[in-house]
Design goal:
mainly alpha
Length: 50
């Protein structure tokens, strides 16, 4: 079986970018939660879980 060639630097860049995107999402979602009433976002969470 042949071992795939892996570019470690490319993987590190991808990991870093992915991590930053997650942090950005969390920031945006947190802002949305702060701006919207509890009833609205809790219903969305309920709908998602169900």
């Amino acid at each position: 079986m042949k071992t795939p060639n892996v570019n470690i630097k490319e993987l590190e860049k991808f990991k870093k970018k992915n991590f930053q995107e997650r942090l950005d999402f969390i920031d945006k979602y947190t802002e949305w939660l702060k701006k919207n009433p509890n009833k609205k976002w809790s219903k969305q969470q309920k709908d998602f879980i169900d």
